[in-house]
Specification:
This protein is mainly alpha-helical. The protein folds into 2 domains: about 230 residues, Citrate Synthase, domain 1 (Orthogonal Bundle); about 100 residues, Cytochrome p450-Terp, domain 2 (Orthogonal Bundle). The protein has a 3-stranded antiparallel beta sheet. Helix 2 packs parallel to helix 16, helix 6 packs parallel to helix 7 and helix 13 packs parallel to helix 15. The two termini are about 45 Å apart. The relative contact order is 0.15. The structure holds acetyl coenzyme *A. The site of acetyl coenzyme *A (ACO) has 18 residues, from loops.
Length: about 375
Amino acid sequence: MEPSDVQRGLEDVVALESRICFIDGQQGRLLYRGYDIRELASRSTFEEVAYLLWYSRLPSAGQLADLKRRMAELRVLPDALARTIDSLPSAALPMDVLRTAVSALALLEPEETKPGASSIGGAQRLTAVLPTILGWIQRRRSGARPVAARPDLSQAAYTLYALLDREPSELDARAMDVALILHADHELNASTFAARVTASTLSDLYSAITSAIGTLKGPLHGGANERVMELLAEIGTPDRAEEVVKAKLARHERIMGFGHRVYKVEDPRATILREWSRKVGEERGNLNDYALLRKVEEVVHREKGLYPNVDLYSGSVYSLLGIPHDLFTPLFASSRVAGWTAHVLEEYDDLRLIRPMAKYVGATDLTYVPIGGRT
Ligand code: ACO
């Protein structure tokens, strides 16, 4: 590539080496540290996956028990942070509150913000406390009692408990566990890249995660599943799917939950979540969203040749679990934080300031005109 060539959106640019996550976009394969996501989703738990991402190996039974104990201790929200969240506008978007909360936590936990030895502690702290922050955001607006740390619950069950103020059924907790596993990492996606850029300046872990949360917020990234639910509401019944989707495509609108920069076939996470959308829907006796999404898939594939991505079915699963739509993206963050922090630690270990170049296409020969002489 000539220095003057522009790769818009850094498409196909290989920016760094990593040992965390492998995507084969042609075959639809996704590996965390060498393990296939399909196997992890069917056999492991989020805590095991977080350990795998942070320490590059699956934990022994003792290591897993230690991690779970540690993370349960780290769930507790500092009073000062609870007060900070309470002081924010009540109508603020949960994703904005989450970003502010993580940034504020950095001020309250200065030791954890230092790169180096304390970073693994920071990774565990952030991953453990994010569901509590989400629970606080949700309960504050619904008037329910504050979140108890509940060290007896797994991360998935605790996440649902924190959000819904009730213990989930086994099926619901497993559905959440699978969703957390599937969202835990995805190579150099935009938010992970943002985290690594921040870390590459030797800034602290909490700042890197604050950057990542701001990046995940956008509808082309983490915000897509919320928009999928808006699309379903607009369509209403399967017989209207064809008409609504075709009209959108004719207006060159994007259909959320479809397409991917890396996958040229179906995203393997979508395949797994489709199954969970059906399973949880069947258990609830409500397959409405599932049926609508199947129809939308058929039309989008026929008309545009596009495949579903992870966001197509995640929203329908979360909805069935009773999670409000504006918490979908914060929930995504509460899982991806395991991957973000693993990437930040890898960046610290192999540090190289990330600083690409721009091709300047503006003027070069202007002469300064004093303000009185300008029109
Ligand atoms: N709906 C309609 N058309 C689409 C879609 C879509 N969802 N995705 C891509 N296309 C079309 C584009 O319009 C373009 O068509 P054209 O060549 O006729 O103009 C072509 O496919 C290529 O699209 P690009 O934007 O170049 O593809 P890119 O790799 O940049 O996009 C992206 C990837 C942003 C995810 C895109 O597919 C999209 O906007 N999808 C919808 C949003 C979404 O679901 N995001 C979640 C992604 S997964 C995640 O972040 C967790």
